[in-house]
Amino acid sequence: CLATLIIMLVGDTYTLINYVSFINYLCYGVTIIGLIVLRWRKPKIFRPIKVNLLIPITYLAFWAFLLIFSLYSEPVVCGVGLIIILTGVPVFFLGVYWRNKPKCVNRLTESMTCWGQKLCFVVYPQCGGAEED
């Protein structure tokens, strides 16, 4: 979010849309790759919707073409998009991967989570321990 805010202040909206479009297409393709990998590695798990593998494989072929074309035609925009994605890596390591955090870091992340939940109305905030019904 911070990187997006900085880009919005510095650049124009068209450039921001290009960054986000590249990021979205990259994430869609990775999701479809995950679907195919799960279909091969765990074929017996329950799936509410099951499609023929030809559909995601065809989608991946077009996705790869569009992604390669984007990388070729606008490498700077794609590079900045990748940098925006990589800004989440430190957040992952600080918030998820690091298991034995000091209590002050845990309190900070819990406070930020609760604040974000209240701000965005995404889930019912569970701040400060047990909530009364």
Automatic annotation (TrEMBL):
Key words of the record: Membrane, Transmembrane, Transmembrane helix
Residues in coiled coil: none
TM stretches of this protein: 16-39, 51-73, 79-98
Claim: Transmembrane is one of the keywords in the record: yes
Taxonomic superkingdom: Eukaryota
Protein name: AAA1 protein
GO MF annotation terms: L-amino acid transmembrane transporter activity; neutral L-amino acid transmembrane transporter activity
One of the GO biological process terms: D-serine transmembrane transport
InterPro entries in the cross-refs: AminoAcid_Transporter (IPR050598)
